Amino acid sequence: MTRQLPKRLAHAALLGALLATTTACGGGKAQKDVAFVARDVETLYAEAQRRLDRGNTLMAAGLFDEVERQHPYSPWARRAQLMSAFSYYIAKDYNKAIQNAQRFLSVHPGNKDAPYAYYLIALSYYEQISDVNRDQKITEQAQTALEEVNRRFPQTEYAADARLKLDLVADHLAGKEMEIGRLYQRSGQWLAAAIRFRNVIEKYDTTSHTAEALYRLAESNLAIGVPEEAVKYTAVLGANYPGNPWYERAYKLIQKHAPDVQPG
What we know:
single chain; mainly alpha; Serine Threonine Protein Phosphatase 5, Tetratricopeptide repeat
């Protein structure tokens, strides 16, 4: 799943929540020329911020990490932890973004920026969601992380965005169930197919796949030899999606194979 993230929200939420920083002076050297040498915390942090502002995100992340390493007890270290996670996220190094955000939360669970850290973790999982033909472990992790944001901080802008993304994640997971169900159908494993389609209508009934899932259940139950169930699913499809092409197909299927059967 490749979707443009609300970078305005991400930047504003993080940078607005953190204290303003100064910008270091000096020309832009190549990344390889910046040695992680000992220096005072303000200079080091400002250099990291400058790198981030110029789009050199991985170097910025490394420099923010250095702030924490060289000055672990400084107030700047807390800010640097989260800024490092943010920089890795922008650089699309999502695993390091997650690790640093989780580390921030383990050390500062009650910090005012904790909501953003949870949100950043969720976004980092969300951006790794693959197409429905691949394993969906990351999708499930994204769902769990987004639900955590919504549960912990329901009144925040992070939760509002998480709820929107949860709808997309559910649609994605439902799509995977449908893809597997169709595969079972093509190989004649009708019962296994029906289980997958039932998962869609039971777990993801508000997604765009529900109508087709009901049709496929009617189709599968006819193949299994349980026409009463097929008629039942067709009736549910007609009641909830009248005029839908999947209902029209299901109706024709029932008229052809079970015209006199009553719902089970």
